[in-house]
Amino acid sequence: MQEHVSDPLVGTLVDNRYAVLSKLARGGMSTVYLAMDQRLEREVALKVLHPYLSADETFLDRLGREAKAAARLSHPHVVGVYDQGTDNSTAYLVMEYIKGHTLRDLLNNKGPLPPRLALALIDPVVAGLAAAHAAGFIHRDVKPENVLIADDGRIKIGDFGLARAVTTATSTGALIGTVAYLSPELVLTKPADARSDVYSVGIMLYEMLTGRQPFSGESTIQVAYQHVHATVGPPSAVVPGLAAEVDELVQWCTANDPENRPVDAAALLQELRHIRTNLTDPELDLQPPARAGHTGMPPVPVQHPTEHIAAAHNPTEFIPAVQNPTEFISQGSNPTTIMPPSRPPGGPGGQDAQRPGYAAQPASQPASQPAAWAAPGSGHALTPPGDRDDNRQAGPWEPVAPLPGKREQRRLDKESEKARARAAATPVRTLREGSPRRRGVLWVVILVIAALLATGAGWFFGMGPGAAASIPAVANKTVAQAQQILDQAGFRATTSDVFDDDVPSGLVVGSEPGAGVEIRKFQPVSLFVSKGPQLFPLPDFAGGTLDEAKTGLNTAEMALGAVTEAFDEKVPAGVVLSQDPAGGTAVRHGTPVALTVSKGPQPLPVPSVVGQKEDAAKKAIEAAGLKAEVAAEEAFDAKVPEGSVASQSPANGTLTRGGTVTLTISKGPRMVDVPSFIGKQASDARAALEKLGFVVNEDKILGGFFGTVRAQDPVNTKAPFGSVITLTVV
User: Fold this and answer.
1) Domain range holding 644?
2) What's the domain count of the chain?
3) What amino acid positions are annotated as catalytic residues?
4) Looking at residue 720, what is its pLDDT?
């Protein structure tokens, strides 16, 4: 629903080109308007940046470069960037206008999704990110609010380049992003790469499967801290029964260390499709427990460009960088323990140091030290040695334990006696000093062994199987060619078959690790061999509505082809009559499906048959596809002969095939007796004849001075109602 609020920009013309029609939404960095591009005559989404960003020349320069680069990124699952510029103090971006709803709307309406639907929805998102990563783009703000589901079933990801431009232009140690989906390296202000987007996708997939985010807190810092120090748990802990492969996929994407994640979205897409292919139907159709407040009804489509809606659920925001994350220690965590150093008995490092709670103090301790120190977290006070009541030689500062009770004192005395007995039984020097010559030979043997080990290790890691080398590119090679290339580089590879829509069957799709990655030669390398495109049976949409067919195409990952309309006498308007390819045909994902939709019964014009003979009129109506019905009563008609159609209902307009036209047949003119008015005054005769329904015509002789009827035609007979009676008046 569009926001109907007063806005000074609505109704204005931006940059003499974009007429602002209405305000759609407001976010953390911009306000979005529906505008008309007057030059190209198309609706666009106009994103106007907030003044604090528009005033930053460095940011505007960076945004311009990012927008130009993003405009060159053309992909079916990426929102297009059309234009960018400034108009006085207004900085704006012009983007593709999409009518539909966001993934956030879907999650708010349905809650957790079945694995089949979650994986189907995340697939085009990852495909769009893969194209962006291949072009050198990193999104940095992947979240459900930026995933668009159009009314026609298309899925796109939007807002490329904006978070990067803002993050690069700020110098305050802050970063732009949505904390619920932010990768640990972005929280720590480290450089981001494609694996940062992969982390956000993993968090988003976790939420799609479970209906909740893995981390929560009262502030953004608390959530950011968990991203750095906590581990995302398996979704099956929230949704029992989820397949182990799905758990592994989510945790692979959300590993804290970027080195343990997929290298980019293309690698993730390959594994995602492999998992979708190998899971069973019960695993894919597992129904998660409904979350409180969710009815499971489908989302209501909203008529606005959904990629520009800053939902209150996860707004993009400035997040202060965590410079020293280890300082944030939650309550109840295990405190750090200070382990005591050891020293000889009776002096520094002696037997006293073995007692619990001992902590030595450096010799450089100032003499003005107070009589007692509090050791943080120890529960003891540190006192000078002069305050101790024992006779042993202690360190400069030692802890004074609380005075024990009698029972405790007896236990400590027994333990002290046992410790003294063990110390007395332990010899203080060896009884055999050993031969110096023997020790020298031993050292020579040790050095030789160490040298041999070092040499072997040098060969192993320098020239042998442990040497590092880069994985060569083997995509689009035959298996034999790829294995030969890897053998020459010192690698041994295993193969596995995967479906691929682009690489022909029998050729290598890629490798894991990917081309260019440097690993040790003894590490395993996997080759993925194409089985060609995976074919799926096309659902049958005939008999359902057009909206149901669109939803079914989106779920089946097929594209909507041409939609044509046709009249049908039996099928109501809006119902699918047929499709091409037909239902049950095995096709690959993304295949466009043409639909023929009923317009309902065809309207037929009603022919006019008034004045025609009854039989001829019936034939004319039946020839038009309608049904003729004769009225029970006939009607007099002075103009229509007897046996012809005097009137019809309806007289014109349209009817559907088989509609009824009622015909009224004429009985001809009604006959009326004509009395004689000869010898009577003409005025009286006229009045009487007109009352009977005749038309009177007077033929006056000598001016009709006397006004007397001398002759009448016709007279004393029957005449049609409305006919003319002629009076001769003298």
Assistant:
1) 603-665
2) 6
3) 141
4) 86
